[in-house]
């Protein structure tokens, strides 16, 4: 049996009625592959993984995999995950979100989860559009681009999700694209192993909505765009700022240490039991 | 550990909620500061870590409700407490708890509304929101309390019912009861019935997470205990997977209602006071029920045959209790600190057997015994 067949048998749900909901050519499958490979390499038990998602194309991901899976309300995946993690810290809690999920409706939860430094990994599929609802502009749709709600072109500035995560205090932030599948594998592995709030932003294409409305070509052509515009962090340091203008920084953006919420709360419990602070 | 057996304490309603929650086994609280419910948060932030529980202050009430559901799925008895504006924000995830059948308790200390309204004044105006606040057809259990002691008992009851029926339970108290201090006796030795969710006993490969059962309540596996299953806010089949099949959707929604409907006797609670010969009955709940009781006593002294039906369970509405008082009473008075939310239900059940009078007050002050007595005199 090939490696991929083994992983499919081990991690995909056999009792779930396939096919999946995603369009042919979508990048979510590549992201799911990276997620499963990273989990398999680290050797987590399936019982100890809780995969939480919000709403949208990415929100449908957990249903296909054989973990404890939780498909929550739009934008709220991180808060459900916070409850799960605090009630049972032995669980490895991984959160899947889209760009609208994470930084529009769930933007408040995103910055606060990062600030609190709860031990969660947030994986954000950023395809610059609301795909499932038919291609409306999202907070990551670049200025000047077209969507079904910006037919006269988008006049808003876009969020840079990874940079937002860095500023909000995430202890690990990595960005990759679905073209750079191997980088995604390693970013996810690093994020899962990191204690504290870790973020992996996955730049993906939505050829069905974003690509079609902006005449960006097929899925393959959009992935080629990712190849041509992604710059590893190490290389970017040597580039002049004008060279970097339309590029995407990929790699590890931040890897630092801060007190982790659960560890600190354990200390709170000890203080509470000893009667301190009262 | 402090010795707590048989102790007379002076507590406010909010503090009694905390004592009841801890007694029921609550080990997780997520909330956001809001008047007049804040004491519940403050006290649980002190008490929960002492018993290896978790308190977290979230960024808003949407987040609080989500965290409560997540914690419950991981096995912790969980609750939040809020007031009107926060309760509005919780409606979204409250619906999730209903459809995914996640036990949890929400305490709403009612204050005057709409919007920011009257943060420090009492009200009973969230009765209908508690019933229908979240979108879609859904069953809900809503309890109320009118004394400090009841805050304790009803909170325990709320946890028990939520665990038993895998449904969120809302405790509606008003600012008067929440902040009023009364003596109550707390005892560790007291026999208190505590109900924990029923877990699956079958091996994981046989577990059907949303299976229909005679009680209508499927066994609930906690995350991380070997039963890997899917939890979703989408309408789902018995395995928990999203479905768009009418033959699966219909029975699922019907079961959600049936699990509550066929257990009214376990859920619906009321108290009757001097109703045996009552030609007139006051129907009240929360702090108003106390004024009503006093008014009934004073009216009796004047020779008016009046009784009191005190509703503890507000939803599902206790039709049987109203029908019981309709056996003797031809006049019903429903005093409420709102524009008439329970009185409509009373009228619906009444069907012209009795005359139903309302007494509504929405100026931020309580309904006094004298006001109810005046109403009794007016209509008798």
Please characterize this protein's 3D structure.
The complex is a heterodimer of chains A (278) and B (380). The mean pLDDT of chain A is 96. Chain A has 278 residues and is of the alpha/beta class. In chain A, helix 7 (181-193) links the parallel strand 7 (172-177) and strand 8 (198-203). In chain A, the strands form 2 sheets. In chain A, strands 2-1-3-4-8-7-10-9 form an 8-stranded mixed beta sheet, sandwiched between helices. Chain A has a two-stranded antiparallel ribbon with strand order 5-6. Chain A contains 11 helices and 10 strands. The radius of gyration of chain A is 19 Å and the shape is globular. The relative contact order of chain A is 0.13. The N and C termini of chain A lie far apart (62 Å). Chain A is 39% helix and 18% strand. Chain B is an alpha/beta fold and 380 residues long. In chain B, strands 2, 3, 4, 5, 6, 7, 8 and 14 form an 8-stranded mixed beta sheet that branches. Chain B has a 5-stranded mixed beta sheet with strand order 11-13-12-15-16, with helices on both faces. In chain B, strand 4 (77-82), helix 4 (84-99) and strand 5 (104-112) form a beta-alpha-beta unit. In chain B, helix 1 packs across helix 2, helix 3 runs parallel beside helix 4 (84-99) and helix 10 (287-301) packs across helix 13. The longest helix of chain B is centred in the middle third of the chain and has 18 residues, at 148-165. The chains are: A alpha/beta (278), B alpha/beta (380). Chains A and B meet through strand 2, helix 3, helix 5 and helix 11 of A and strand 2, helix 3, helix 4 and strand 10 of B.
Task: Write the topology of this structure.
The complex is a heterodimer of chains A (278) and B (380).
Chain A: H1 3-11, H2 28-42, E1 49-53, E2 68-71, H3 77-87, E3 92-98, H4 99-105, H5 107-116, E4 121-126, E5 129-130, E6 136-137, H6 161-168, E7 172-177, H7 181-193, E8 198-203, H8 207-213, H9 219-229, E9 230-232, H10 233-236, E10 248-255, H11 261-274
Parallel strand pairs in A: 1-2, 1-3, 3-4, 4-8, 7-8, 9-10
Antiparallel strand pairs in A: 5-6, 7-10
Helix pairs in contact in A: 2-7, 4-5, 5-6
Chain B: E1 7-12, H1 13-24, E2 26-31, H2 38-47, E3 54-57, H3 61-73, E4 77-82, H4 84-99, E5 104-112, E6 118-122, H5 127-132, E7 141-144, H6 148-165, E8 168-174, H7 175-179, E9 181-186, E10 230-232, H8 246-261, H9 264-267, E11 270-273, E12 280-284, H10 287-301, E13 306-311, E14 313-315, H11 319-325, E15 331-336, H12 342-350, E16 355-360, H13 369-379
Parallel strand pairs in B: 2-3, 2-4, 4-5, 5-8, 7-8, 12-13, 12-15, 15-16
Antiparallel strand pairs in B: 1-9, 5-6, 7-14, 11-13
Helix pairs in contact in B: 1-2, 1-6, 3-4, 10-13
């Amino acid at each position: 049996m090939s490696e991929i067949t083994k992983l499919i048998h081990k991690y995909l749900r056999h009792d779930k009625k396939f096919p999946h909901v995603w369009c042919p050519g979508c990048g979510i499958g590549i992201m799911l592959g990276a997620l499963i490979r990273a989990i398999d390499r680290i050797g987590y038990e399936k019982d100890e993984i809780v995969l939480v998602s919000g709403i949208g194309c990415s929100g449908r991901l957990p249903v296909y995999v054989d973990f404890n899976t939780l498909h929550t309300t739009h934008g709220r995946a991180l808060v459900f995950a916070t409850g799960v993690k605090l009630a049972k810290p032995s669980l490895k809690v991984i959160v899947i979100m889209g760009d609208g999920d994470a930084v529009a409706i769930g933007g408040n939860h995103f910055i606060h989860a990062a600030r609190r430094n709860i031990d969660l990994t947030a994986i954000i599929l950023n395809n610059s559009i609301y795909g499932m609802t038919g291609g409306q502009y999202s907070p990551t749709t670049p200025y000047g681009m077209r969507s079904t709600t910006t037919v006269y072109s988008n006049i808003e500035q876009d969020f840079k999700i990874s940079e937002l995560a860095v500023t909000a205090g995430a202890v690990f932030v990595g960005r990759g694209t679905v073209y750079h599948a191997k980088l995604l594998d390693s970013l996810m592995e690093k994020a899962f192993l990191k204690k504290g709030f870790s973020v992996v932003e996955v730049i993906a294409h939505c050829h069905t909505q974003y690509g079609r409305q902006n005449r960006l070509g097929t899925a393959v052509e959009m992935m080629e765009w990712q190849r041509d515009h992604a710059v590893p962090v190490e290389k970017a340091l040597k580039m002049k700022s004008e060279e970097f203008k339309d590029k995407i920084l990929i790699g590890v953006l931040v890897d630092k240490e801060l007190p982790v919420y659960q560890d600190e709360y354990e200390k709170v419990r000890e203080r509470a039991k000893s009667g301190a602070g009262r | 550990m402090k010795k707590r057996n048989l102790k007379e304490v002076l507590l406010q309603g909010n503090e009694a909620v905390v004592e009841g929650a801890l007694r029921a086994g609550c080990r997780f609280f997520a909330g956001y500061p809001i008047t007049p419910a804040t004491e519940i948060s403050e006290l649980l932030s002190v008490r929960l870590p002492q018993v290896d529980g978790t308190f977290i202050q979230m960024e808003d009430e949407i987040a609080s409700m989500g965290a409560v559901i997540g914690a419950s799925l991981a096995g912790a008895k969980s609750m939040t407490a809020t007031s009107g504006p926060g309760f509005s924000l919780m409606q979204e995830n409250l619906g999730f708890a209903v459809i995914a059948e996640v036990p949890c308790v929400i305490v709403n200390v009612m204050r005057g509304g709409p919007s920011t309204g009257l943060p420090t004044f009492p009200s009973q105006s969230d009765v209908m929101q508690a019933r229908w606040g979240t979108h879609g057809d859904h069953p809900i259990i809503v309890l109320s309390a009118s004394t400090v002691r009841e805050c304790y008992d009803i909170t325990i009851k709320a946890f028990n019912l939520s665990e038993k029926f895998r449904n969120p339970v809302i405790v509606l108290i008003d600012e008067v009861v929440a902040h009023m201090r009364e003596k109550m006796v707390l005892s560790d030795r007291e026999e208190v019935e505590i109900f924990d969710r029923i877990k699956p006993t079958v091996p994981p490969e046989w577990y059907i997470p949303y299976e229909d059962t005679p009680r209508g309540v499927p066994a609930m596996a906690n995350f991380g205990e070997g039963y890997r299953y899917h939890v979703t806010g989408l309408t789902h089949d018995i395995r928990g997977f999203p479905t768009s099949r009418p033959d699966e959707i219909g029975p699922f929604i019907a079961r959600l209602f049936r699990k509550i409907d066929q257990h009214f006797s376990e859920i619906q609670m009321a108290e009757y006071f001097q109703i045996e010969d009552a030609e007139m009955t006051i129907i009240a709940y929360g702090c108003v029920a106390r004024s009503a009781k006093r008014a009934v006593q004073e009216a009796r002294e004047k020779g008016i045959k009046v009784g009191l039906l005190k509703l503890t369970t507000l939803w599902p509405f206790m039709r049987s209790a109203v029908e019981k008082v309709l056996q003797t009473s031809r006049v019903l008075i429903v005093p409420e600190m709102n524009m008439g939310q329970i009185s409509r239900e009373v009228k619906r059940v009444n069907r012209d057997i009795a005359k139903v009078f309302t007494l509504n007050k929405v100026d931020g002050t309580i309904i006094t015994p004298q006001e109810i007595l005046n109403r009794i005199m007016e209509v008798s």
